[in-house]
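In this section we walk through a basic example: taking a raw amino acid sequence and producing a predicted 3D structure, encoded as discrete structure tokens. The instruction is simple. Fold the sequence below.
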Amino acid sequence: MSNLSNDQGRALEFSTLMVFEKEISEYRSVKIDKNSSFESAKKAWDKMSPQLKETFEKCAIAAAKVIFDLEPIILENGNDTLELKIQPDQAGKIGDVRDILIIRAGMKWEIGLSIKHNHLAVKHSRLGSTLDFGKSWFDVNCSAQYWNDVKPVFDRLALEKKKGSKWSDLSLKETVVYTPILQAFVDEIKRSYAIHGKIIPIRMIEYLLGRYDFYKVIGIDREKCTKVQAFNLRGSLNLKSKQKRSVCIVPLVNLPNRIVNIGIKPGSNTTVELYLDQGWQFGFRIHNASTLVENSLKFDIQIIGMPATILTIDKYWS
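The resulting token sequence is shown next.
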């Protein structure tokens, strides 16, 4: 992710936090945890143009309307103080994709929001000469066969890195770098699934979507729309308050048990498609994330198909 995209993402987190505080304060006591992540988000916000700030505020206002309708506990008046906080980036490394937390500590209740600006990417994971994706993704070490398969490619990239080569200097990089790495990736997932069965698809979902239920909030500027998706995998979202119920039910979403198919996308040298049962489908597009050659490659991971039980609400800006 570029510095500009990173700053815009942080600025949208800041805008969402401030809008939520303003709206919630009309109903109950609320405070913001002004931690280091808050300060970083504020610095990013301060860099934005007035036009972009207005866009982010419209996105956040739309998100607040949807989330408040689905989560009545937020606006429920009580003697406690509701807390809003931005999580540190390190949270994502331990299986928590939520950027913003909404917390009522006294009743041991919280929900989280994953904030996205103009993109739907799930993760930006890497494959590298010493990166054991199996251990990171589903707690199964990659096999010796996998390391044997990828070693010639990463050894070549290491030599090119020493020479200071640019990715644009490498001829046929799709066929001599991307395709063999992707094929080794596909083969390793198949091997792990053959040995360990359903824990592989379950743990892959937990890696890609995190270990906590959350709402994904996507601001789409060109459509003047905020898209809210409810990932209620464990049943912790959409609880009723003492005074009212949600305006609609957020269904429980089933985790997958089977890998239906995985392989390199027909006609592509850069993308793997993964099909799981229960309606889950993912695309893994591999690419170089820098001008100069590195001995690692980056995935842009997208959801290309979801269970019908994932509630999606599009809220257009006023």
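Looking at the output, two observations stand out. The chain has a mean pLDDT of 93. The longest helix spans residues 173-196. In the next section we compare this with other chains.
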